[in-house]
Specification:
Low-confidence stretches of chain A: none
Mean pLDDT of chain B: 92
Oligomer: heterodimer
Distance between the termini of chain B: 48 Å
Order of helices and strands of chain B: EEHEEHHEHHEEEEEEEEH
Mean pLDDT of chain A: 91
Number of domains of chain B: 2
Largest sheet of chain B: 7 strands, mixed
Strand content of chain B: 25-35%
Number of domains of chain A: 2
Shape of chain B: elongated
CATH superfamily of the largest domain in chain B: Cyclophilin-like
Number of strands of chain B: 13
Strand order of the largest sheet of chain B: 7-6-13-5-12-9-10
Number of helices of chain B: 6
CATH architecture of the largest domain in chain B: Beta Barrel
Strand order of the largest sheet of chain A: 12-19-16-17-14-13-20
Low-confidence stretches of chain B: none
Helix content of chain B: 25-40%
Distance between the termini of chain A: 28 Å
């Protein structure tokens, strides 16, 4: 089973939940930018949540399926079509052999996830199938997809394949999908400007009160050269007089670094393991998928919360995902 | 920050990491202390802690809040990890367990492989041979790993050959390139963009991605590095021998 790349799109990479555990060796974590959309896409096709998916960026690829497959598309809705027929999002879709999928640009959001039942057959490197663009390993040959690439798909193991996936494959012809979908209310990024919750960073105390207040007040624009490694923010530069001299140390996804020019940088999935600029604040875990979906050129605003508030919000989010899982399990029993 | 060498401070970095800070100095002893602490905490395999990373003078403890909450039944994972780490850092043994290695890195200086050597020599007002001699003299300490996989931040560069970074970074620097950027020197393990002055190239591979359990790196934090000049012919021979 395979799919071939007719057109690669802006940046299409294989990603999973990343490779934590080796950061002390300088090995970056990588992995999906928007964990929630990725996990839901996998659940919809009966995969483990940690299975690798294709991460599509702003301008999606053109892909041809050389075998019948069941896929799910979640995240920023890039519209698209299967041989001219509109593609449904947030639900399992049977894609017949020979079908070509094309995508458009999302009206809102920046990244979409294409999960395929069974997953992609690429070797794990350091325990993960994520593409490490800076190191040139993982994913498909350590790079973004190119025209002419052929990706092998793993056959979904019959025993683990949910009933709705088997039904789709066996009893339908052409493009087929159920009349239900995961609620689009799960998309946590539908407003502009996007408000992102943040927590005090490691060097919060080094910044002046004025700088701290400004971070919470200012409207920032995500620069056009932002990528999976980090987002550069343009707006009112922060005053950094007391905070320029810090030493390199381990940093997290969502860390908001302030380089000497005062324009914040938000570290994202492909960040280096260590950073040498002061970290004024850190994006709350709950809102990392929101940041992942802010496209270059869009605006963002920060709001301070406490760790307790952040954890409480994450518990609610996981509870919602748990309900999605239960609902899908119920479909399996039908 | 007012931190003394005897009194590490614990500072949160958002809701998924805690930093143990040993001050703000680039110092071999402070660095050794951070590395010893990181190694000790890593070996404890604290439930929910995913990575323990030593910096110049600190240790970043990364954790998965959901895993910590499940393991501790505490609804504030940051508090739970802070409590655990506070209890553990008092027990870190004085001497590091791992014996540091000394790694010899052969370098072919100048020419196509070290295209900025002449410029560096001009900037330092000394012959190129003198730059090479001074670059090869010290035993460098690997303070930490980062930047790109396998890259070691080396300390100990001769002040006389400290040259500022280039004004515009290059888009592609070949793997193995040896550079000088300000008070730092190091080797690019993989092809990457970079702003350092490139003075040579090593045939040795610094990073090998695989799925083994060992380290993919030639150098580890705490190791020592010495550069050894080789001719272009030796470079080719060493490169061929490594395959």
């Amino acid at each position: 089973m395979s799919l071939s790349v007719q057109r690669p799109g802006l940046l299409t990479t294989i990603q999973d939940m990343g490779r934590p555990g080796r950061q002390h060796l300088g090995v970056p974590v990588n992995g999906v930018m928007d964990e929630i959309s990725h996990r839901i896409a996998n659940l919809l096709v009966g995969n483990d949540e940690s299975e690798a998916t294709l991460e599509l960026t702003v301008n999606g690829p053109t892909l041809r399926f050389d075998e019948d497959a069941v896929i799910a598309l979640c995240g920023a809705n890039m519209g698209g079509s299967a041989d001219g027929e509109a593609l449904p999002w947030w639900r399992p879709v049977r894609v017949p052999k020979g079908t070509t999928l094309t995508f458009g640009r999302p009206e809102i959001g920046a990244r979409a996830y294409l999960a395929v039942a069974g997953g992609f057959d690429v070797p794990a490197v350091f325990g993960s199938r994520s593409t490490a663009l800076s190191g040139g390993y993982g994913g498909f040959r350590g790079r973004a997809l190119k025209k002419g690439d052929v990706l092998t798909l793993r056959s979904p193991e019959e025993a683990h394949t949910p009933r709705w996936v088997r039904l789709l494959i066996r009893h339908h012809h052409g493009l087929a999908y159920p009349n239900w979908s995961v609620s689009r209310a799960r998309m946590p990024y539908r407003v502009r400007p996007q408000v992102v919750r943040v927590l005090p960073g490691r060097h919060w105390q080094l910044f002046s009160v004025a700088a701290r207040e400004q971070l919470a007040r200012a409207l920032y624009r995500v620069a056009l050269d932002s990528d999976r490694m980090g987002y550069r923010l343009e707006g009112a530069p922060l005053e950094t007089r007391r905070a320029v001299d810090v030493l390199s140390e381990g940093v997290v996804m969502g860390a908001i670094q302030i380089p000497p020019d005062g324009d914040p940088i938000v570290l994202m999935a492909d960040r280096q393991t260590t950073g040498g600029y002061p970290v004024i604040a850190v994006v709350a875990s709950i809102d990392l998928p929101v940041v992942a979906q802010i496209a270059p050129g869009e605006d963002v605003q920060f709001r301070m919360i406490t760790p307790a508030e952040s954890y409480a919000a994450s518990v609610v989010r996981e509870h919602q995902l748990g309900r999605v899982k239960q609902a899908l399990f119920a479909k399996l029993q039908q | 920050m007012a931190e003394t060498s005897t009194d590490p401070q614990l500072v949160p970095m958002g809701d998924r990491a805690l930093v143990v800070s040993f001050g703000n100095a680039v110092d071999p002893d402070v660095n050794a202390r951070a590395q010893g602490c990181a190694e000790y905490l890593r070996e404890r395999r604290i439930a929910g802690v995913t990575d323990v990373v030593a910096g110049y003078a600190s240790v970043t403890v990364h954790f998965d809040p959901a895993l910590v909450a499940a393991a501790t039944r505490c609804d504030n994972p940051l508090d739970a990890v802070t409590e655990t780490v506070t209890a553990l850092i008092g027990r870190v043994p004085e001497a590091p367990r791992r014996r540091p290695k000394t790694i010899e890195i052969p370098v072919c200086y100048g020419g196509e492989m070290g295209m900025d050597l002449e410029e560096v020599a001009e900037h330092c007002r000394m012959p190129a041979d003198e730059v090479i001699r001074r670059h090869c003299a010290p035993l460098y300490r690997v303070y930490l790993l980062g930047f790109v996989p396998g890259f070691g931040y080396l300390g100990g560069l001769d002040r006389r050959i400290q040259v500022p970074r280039r004004e515009s970074p290059r888009k592609r620097i070949p793997a193995g390139s040896v550079g000088i950027g300000g008070e730092q020197t190091g080797v690019y393990p993989v092809e990457s963009p970079g702003g350092w002055n490139i003075i040579g190239r090593t045939p040795r591979r610094l990073f090998r991605p695989d799925d083994g359990e060992g380290t993919p790196n030639l150098m580890e934090a705490g190791d020592f590095v010495r550069f050894v000049p080789v001719t272009a012919a030796e470079f080719d021979r060493l490169k061929a021998a490594q395959r």
